[in-house]
TrEMBL record:
UniProt name for this protein: Cytochrome c oxidase assembly factor CtaG
Recorded topology in the membrane: Multi-pass membrane protein
GTP-binding is among the record's keywords: no
NCBIfam families attached to this UniProt entry: caa3_CtaG
Keywords: Cell membrane, Membrane, Transmembrane, Transmembrane helix
InterPro entries, sorted: Caa3-assmbl_CtaG, Caa3_assmbl_CtaG-rel
Membrane spanning stretches: 20-38, 50-67, 87-110, 122-141, 153-171, 191-210, 266-285
Subcellular location: Cell membrane
Native source organism of the sequence: Macrococcus equipercicus
Amino acid sequence: MGRLSSISIFGFMANWSPYYLLIVVFLTVLYFMAVTKWRHGIAGNRPLKASETVLLLIAVVLIYLLKGGPIDLLSHIVFSFHMLQMAMLYLLVIPMLYFAVPAYFVDYIISRPVIKPVFQLMTRPVVALVVFNGLFSIYHLPVVLDFLKTNAALHAVYTILLSVTAFVMWFPVFNRSQLQRSQLSGLQKMLFIFMIGVLLTPSCGLIIFAQQPMYKTYTDPKAWMNAMSLCVPSGTLDNILASSGISGPQYFTNMSSLEDQQTGGVIMKVLQELFFAVMLFYVFFSWKYSEGKDEEHTTMRSLERRRQEQAYFNQFR
């Protein structure tokens, strides 16, 4: 990835986003209250498992580091970190939530009158695939990314939209819902994961094989300064510019803009393949295990029916 100069010059606020941390902590405490103290008002509730607590805390820490810690600041400076952030958040952390949050709580949320019809539509496999991957591809169009990187409110809205649609996209694969709804078979889940990879490939390919840098916010000093003003307090940024002579993102890495862009595309593709390999492994063996259980259950049911038939005929002997 090349040498990186220290980003500590941007100060504590820019590197660690304490206000974002407070929001994350508040929402985490609220969630734990909902699934412990307040859970008794929810149908199908049960005590929280230790594994769910650990996974949820890991997911929360990753979310904070990716969107509030130094990785987020670096994602505004170096495109490689932007793609690292994308891959980790949408292909690792969001799927983790299905193992960290009890199924009954997810069912309760998605059964709310306002949410239910929308969620039922959005979790249809084809719709779920197209919506997230379409939004992801649109986001990485140069004109869209450059615009969103310089508008804090719209960037926040688009990030939330991507997160919600990513959660929806992974629902057909990882949900453990007890609601009456059709579920994908193991083979269908494997095909679904494969199709996500297929739909992500054009964006990664465009980024990797482009012959010149595509994004002004990572190459043009003026556009980059505008983007940085969204995550660095204006007074701090003005002082840094006046004292250090920073003229653009190239100050922080010895990679060229094109190398940085291509590296970002490769990072996204490699992490995608790694995460998807683990997912396919999990889905395959879960499918194999469930098929074995169904087979055993069918056999036991046949034996019980045979025993009952034999008992019926024995009474006439």
